[in-house]
Write a structure and sequence with these properties.
- The protein has helices at residues 2-27, 163-169, 215-262, 266-272, 284-297, 314-321, 323-338, 364-379, 403-419; strands at residues 30-36, 43-47, 56-61, 66-72, 81-86, 99-109, 116-122, 137-143, 150-155, 160-161, 183-189, 197-211, 305-311, 346-351, 354-359, 391-397, 425-427.
- The protein folds into three domains: 1-29 and 214-271; 32-211, Jelly Rolls (Sandwich), CATH 2.60.120; 282-427, 2-Layer Sandwich (Alpha-Beta Plaits), CATH 3.30.70.
- The chain is α+β, with helices and mostly antiparallel strands.
- The radius of gyration is 38 Å and the shape is elongated.
- The longest helix is centred in the middle third of the chain and has 48 residues, at 215-262.
- Pfam families: GGDEF.
- It comes from Chitiniphilus shinanonensis.
- InterPro entries: Diguanylate_Cyclase, GGDEF_dom, Nucleotide_cyclase, Rev_trsase/Diguanyl_cyclase.
Length: 430
């Protein structure tokens, strides 16, 4: 009863945990970068006097805000004043792509249209120079604050790259898109239009809002937790299966003792044990009826394929590592092969380390491909005790002949494979 309740309880706990994590990500985990009057980040001013204009920019701070005062002149063709805030001197900058939006509490007084430009300048060594901020990509937002100021929240995906910057620096098309991964500086600037007079851009704060863990990362975490739960349930089921197999082996030993005591015939024993107790696959007695039926259904266009498989040097494994390790190898072998064959195929333990795979409706070429697939899978597999295990294969198909003839032919092909060096597939046609 505990085995049944355990996964159910775990699923309930996981559902609750998943819900808590998703809600926490949505309503919490908030990450904010704030720039206000108290900031110690370096600020710099620039105006068009460096280009032959006559505009004059001044920075004025008070307890509540910092402001760009610009006496804009129409002397220069594209007059401007701008204020720069250096976020970091590190070449890698700040990754603003992990943020969702920017919130600006700004007031703009001017004699013109009050069009404000906001830049996030990102450095990329592919086209920029670390010591020349004019080569840093000009990711741009343009908006007009309400009269008297307002708090404006803008999604970061609204950024575009300024066309004048792309043209001025001849940027290749593969680098022409917005890039907020290495932002080193932000800027506020007038529109660049000829609107002479006093311009005042008063900033109470600038905030970048995001999450410490993105929705995608949280989704991956939740998926990983579910995968871990599934894996733990599978491991628990495997342990239960191993317990049942050990119980089956003990039961087989008890049956042998009882058979000896009651002097039962071997034929009766074979009828009682149709499956190999160690690996759980069929044994010779267990395949008899199905093999006769499949042989009757076999036709030249849909033959029954017969694949003999022998684990190479298995005796050496038993001698050097012990029979317990050998048993683990056999169980791992049948489990791995079981994942590579169809539901209608039959894997039979023929004896010791020798197995036979019967594949209905399988031409010889397809049987050879399947054998080669299994061979390569076994050779590259991580085995118990770091062993290197290979196998040899003998392949044929049933023709209009007794089943025993095809079994003998496949066994001869297996013998040839082992004689030629093992770890190979040999096929004999009917």
């Amino acid at each position: 009863m505990r085995i049944v309740k355990y996964p159910r309880f775990s699923v309930l706990v996981m559902l609750l945990l998943s819900g808590v994590l998703l809600l926490w990500q949505h309503f919490g985990m908030n990450r904010v970068i704030r720039i206000d009057a108290a900031t110690t980040l370096p600020m710099a001013l620039q105006d068009d006097r460096s280009s032959g204009g006559a505009s004059v920019a001044r920075l004025i701070r008070d307890n509540d805000a910092f402001a760009l005062h610009c006496l804009l002149s129409s002397t220069y063709e594209w007059p401007y004043c701008e204020m720069s805030i250096r976020l970091t001197d590190k070449p890698e900058g700040i990754d603003l792509s992990r943020f969702d939006s920017v919130k600006l509490n700004v007031e703009y007084r001017s004699p013109g249209a009050r069009a404000l430009r906001f830049f996030a300048r990102s450095y990329d060594p592919a086209y920029g120079k670390a010591n020349d901020d004019t080569t840093w990509k000009a990711n741009e937002l343009a908006f007009t604050p309400a009269v008297g100021g307002e708090v404006k929240t803008i999604p970061l995906h609204s950024f575009n790259v300024a066309s004048w910057w792309l043209s001025e620096h001849n940027i290749p098309v593969e680098y022409a898109g917005p890039d907020l991964q290495r932002v080193r500086m932000i800027q506020l600037s007038t529109s660049g239009l000829k609107e002479p007079g006093e311009h005042v851009i008063r900033v109470r704060y600038i905030e970048f809002h995001g999450k410490w863990v993105s929705r995608e990362q949280m989704a991956l975490l939740v998926v990983a937790l579910w995968v871990a739960l599934a894996a733990s349930v599978l491991v628990n089921d495997l342990r239960q299966m191993q317990r049942r197999l050990r119980h089956s082996r003990r039961r087989e030993e008890d049956l042998r003792s009882l058979t000896k005591a009651l002097q039962l015939e071997n034929k009766v024993i074979g009828e009682l044990a149709r499956r190999d107790p160690l690996t759980g696959v069929r044994n010779r007695a267990g395949i008899r009826d199905e093999l006769l039926r499949e042989a009757e259904l076999s036709q030249p266009e849909r033959p029954l394929a017969v694949i003999f498989i022998d684990l190479d040097h298995f005796k050496r494994i038993n001698d050097e590592y012990g029979h317990d390790t050998g048993d683990l190898v056999l169980k791992q072998f049948t489990a791995e092969v079981g994942t590579l064959i169809r539901r209608e195929d039959y894997l039979v333990r023929w004896g010791g380390e020798e197995f036979v795979l019967f594949c209905p409706n399988t031409p010889l070429a397809s049987a050879i491909q399947l054998a080669e697939k299994i061979r390569l899978h076994l050779r590259d597999l991580e085995w118990v005790s770091d062993l290197h295990v290979t196998a040899s294969f003998g392949v044929t198909v049933l023709a209009q002949e007794p089943v025993a003839d095809s079994l003998k032919r496949a066994d001869e092909a297996l013998y040839q494979a082992k004689h030629e060096g093992r770890d190979r597939v040999i096929a004999h046609r009917p």
